[in-house]
Amino acid sequence: MFIFTHIQASVIFVNSLAAGKNTGQSWQEAYTSIQSALELAKANDQIWVAEGTYYPTKGNNRDKSFIIPEKVTLLGGFKGDEKSINQRDFEKNKTILSGDILHNGIKETFSKHIVFLKDDAVIDGFTIENAYNIETLANKSNHLTPTLIQNSNLEGTGGAVVNFKSTGIVNNCIIQNNTAEKGAGAYNMASGKTAIFNNVQFLRNYSTVRGGAMSNDLGTNVILLNSKFEKNKCDDKGGAVYNDFFSNTLIINTTFTKNEAENAATIGNDGGSKAILLNSDITDNTAQILGSALYQGSYNANIKDGSNSMVLINSTLSNNISLTNGTSIFTWGDDKYYFYNTNVKDG
To answer: Which InterPro entries match (predicted)?
Structure first.
């Protein structure tokens, strides 16, 4: 005898201004808290969130985050009366996830991380802002080893969006004004798995060590589509994107402009990492020393295919400035660049 069960997916409603019974079963009875919906959600459920600003906690716990469960979709951009996803307007109905949990604008009191994505979780239609994750230990290492990364509690690592040992999808989001030591806008560490970012704007994110907007570690695969990186900054490597320890990034139809770093103002590869850029533009980025547009550095020469590489197809590099070294493209050792129908208008 065989018993077949059908798992019914649900829509859970959230509206911070709702005044009903707080059941999440309709707009009229919507939850006022996203956390309430996340606690109830199961695989294949959708959570519809009306415009407004939402915080990971009502208290002062900086370690509290929005954790989106596996295969759950969190959708923002609703006015609060829609009957179909197609009726939402995420550009007009701003739905904000903010780490300013005390509503005081003091960065040191902001949430360390705002969103964690479990495998195949989706976040779509939000502005994600005001994470602050700076570790105060004076003796910490700026360059973590794979073992330390695997066992990390993410102190100093990641800010707005984190894929840690799991990977989800980020669509139609603005990720802005976040601060961390590494990957202030997004941090991805999930060996062999793929994180996807589509139509995402990374604006004014700042890291002290690696990846002002995004940092990718330990064999993680990242796909960036139709996105923009603007005015992100890192004090060391990777003003916009930094890849390390055999990470791979595919970048399509994406623009990088006015990003800054000491080295690798736009994209940096270390540790045998690979990047492919297709139909993308790198313009007006500034490095204090090396590689305002592209940078490839250290790798393990004793490992087969251990060098870094970048492939650029139908792309443009223009007006990128390296103040000390002068060249916008830097390579070290056996690292490789491949250019196909790509216009390089700077040094």
So the answer is: Pectin_lyas_fold (IPR012334), Pectin_lyase_fold/virulence (IPR011050)
The predicted pLDDT at position 136 comes to: 63
Over residues 181-233, the pLDDT tens digits come to 999 999 999 989 999 999 999 999 999 999 999 999 999 999 999 999 999 99
pLDDT of 251 over the 50 cut:
yes
Written as six digits, the tokens of 217 are 């570690």
Which of 155, 166, 162 has the alpha carbon at shortest distance from 187?
A: 162
* Spatial separation of the C-alpha atoms in residues 212 and 216, rounded to whole Å: 11
Q: Which two tokens stand for residue 248?
A: 């791979």
β-pairing, 161-164 vs 122-124, is unpaired
User: Which DSSP letter does residue 191 get?
Assistant: T
Angstrom distance (rounded) from CA 216 to CA 289: 22
Q: What is the pTM of this model?
A: 0.95
Tens-digit pLDDT profile for residues 27-71: 999 999 999 999 999 999 999 999 999 999 999 999 999 999 999
Mean model confidence pLDDT for the chain:
93
Alpha helices in 41-137 (DSSP H): none
Could you tell me the CA-to-CA distances from 172 to 70, 97, 191, 303 in Å, in that order?
Answer: 19, 14, 25, 38
- State the burial class of residue 253 (Cβ atoms within 10 Å of its Cβ: 0-12, 13-18, 19+): middle
Lookup: tokens for 35? 């956390």
Q: Name the CA dihedral angle for 131, 249, 91, 124, rounded to a multiple of 10 degrees.
A: -80
Pure H helices in the chain: 34-40, 146-150
pLDDT tens figures, 290-314? 999 999 997 766 566 679 999 999 9
